[in-house]
Design a protein that fits this description.
The chain has one helix and three strands. It has 87 residues and is an alpha+beta fold. A three-stranded antiparallel beta sheet has the order 1-2-3, with no helix packed on it.
Length: 87
């Protein structure tokens, strides 16, 4: 599930700490981005670039309000899957 993603090895749903009032709209995402997570109310919570090693979340994986087990896994996955070779 979610192989090669920052969400690899995580359940389909889990609670996170969302502190931001600004957010992207699913219907207004540029073609180069895929929405990879939504909140229960349909707010974009994560995106990834279709061809570049970029991903972003609209919540705090490191927060005490996000399960440490899930938050740390997101951070570990990000270091693993978002790397690329420097010239």
């Amino acid at each position: 599930q979610n192989s090669g993603s920052i969400f690899e090895g995580l359940p389909e749903q889990f609670d996170v700490a969302r502190y931001h009032s600004l957010y992207g709209l699913n219907e207004k995402m540029p073609e180069c981005l895929d929405v990879t997570a939504l909140s229960e109310d349909g707010i974009v919570m994560a995106i990834k670039h279709k061809t570049l090693p970029y991903a972003a979340v609209q919540f705090h994986p490191e927060s005490i309000l996000t399960s440490p087990k899930h938050g740390m896994k997101i951070l570990q996955n990000a270091l693993k899957v978002l790397s690329y070779e420097c010239e």
